[in-house]
Write a structure and sequence with these properties.
Shape: globular
Strand content: 25-35%
Strand order of the largest sheet: 1-3-2-6-7-5-8-4
Mean pLDDT: 77
Radius of gyration: 17 Å
Low-confidence stretches: 1-37, 278-282
Order of helices and strands: EHEEHHEEHHEEHHEE
CATH topology: Alpha-Beta Plaits
């Protein structure tokens, strides 16, 4: 079934810090780069992330969202990019599917459109109505490298300061011939992530079986994330991924949370910056 969305994911060799790309593998140039075609539309810099855990009675409905995929979101005002994502068992990582866990990743150009989606979208409301736990975030990119299905992102806010939270997206398409090597690195890196100081949550997401993986993680601050990203099993996985050329496409983005509300993993999140109001980006 071509439109089936994956329910597997691992942070293993995917979780690469956005600002540490090796010089031998430069990131694709975003459309907003000075060398882009004149008049080209800049890459978006905003994202809405939704994580949902659904009771068993709503799993068929959730599976239907996976099958329909991004097409169900085409009518969303201001939407530039959409992915409906599966997750690993219990919202975690590995090859065991978790059909009761699901994610959405939506890109927007304007804060007003992103906030309107969170407040008024009937498609998003359908998740809230059915979910036992639902976490919604509005995120502004502070650094971005790479592409996702050809779509890039651009930084629109400064990097978070000391002690300020950040969200990291790491996403990659794994070359079929490298999948086994990639997955061998997964368990040690997963264990390190689970135990990493300063990691408030980490969720494994995916959009295609085994080969298209992503991780979303929330950190207390940049120092905590860097300490994990640059040490131990994770650092070994990163070195292997670039040495062996595991990925055919990748995207690494750091975000500053503008809005973070809901419940996930038994924890309640309720954070909104004062500027979390409908405004327009220039």
């Amino acid at each position: 079934m071509g439109s089936f969305v994956n329910t597997w994911s691992s942070p293993g060799a995917v979780h690469r810090e956005a600002d540490d790309q090796p010089a031998s593998r430069p990131a694709p140039r975003p459309s907003g780069h000075p060398g882009a075609i004149p008049g080209a539309r800049p890459d978006p810099g905003l994202a809405v992330l939704v994580l949902a855990r659904l009771p068993a009675r709503h799993v068929p409905w959730a599976f239907g969202r996976l099958v329909r995929g991004p097409g169900a979101w085409r009518a969303e005002p201001g939407l530039r990019f959409a992915r409906v994502l599966g997750s690993g068992r219990d919202g975690g990582f590995g090859l065991r599917p978790g059909l009761d866990h699901q994610g959405l990743f939506l890109m927007f150009d304007e804060v007003a459109d992103a906030l309107a989606c969170v407040a008024r979208s009937p498609r998003l409301a359908a998740y809230r109505e059915r979910a036992d736990e639902c976490l919604v975030a509005v995120l502004q990119a502070s650094s971005a490298r790479g592409r996702w299905a050809g779509q890039g992102m651009r930084a629109i806010v400064p990097a978070p300061g000391p002690g300020e939270p950040l969200v990291a997206l790491t996403r990659a398409s794994i070359r079929a011939g490298q999948a086994l090597r990639f997955w061998r690195h997964s368990p040690p890196s997963e264990a390190a992530l689970a135990a990493a100081p300063g990691c408030r949550l980490a969720v494994g997401l995916g959009e295609a079986p085994v080969l298209r993986q992503a991780t979303i993680s929330l950190w207390d601050d940049t120092a905590a994330m860097n300490a994990y990203a640059r040490s131990g099993a994770h650092q070994q996985a990163i070195e292997a991924s670039y040495r062996e050329g595991y990925f055919s496409e990748w995207m690494f983005v750091r975000f500053v949370p503008l809005l973070l509300q809901g419940r996930w993993g038994g924890r309640t999140f309720d954070m909104a910056r004062p500027d979390a109001a409908p405004t327009r980006h220039g």
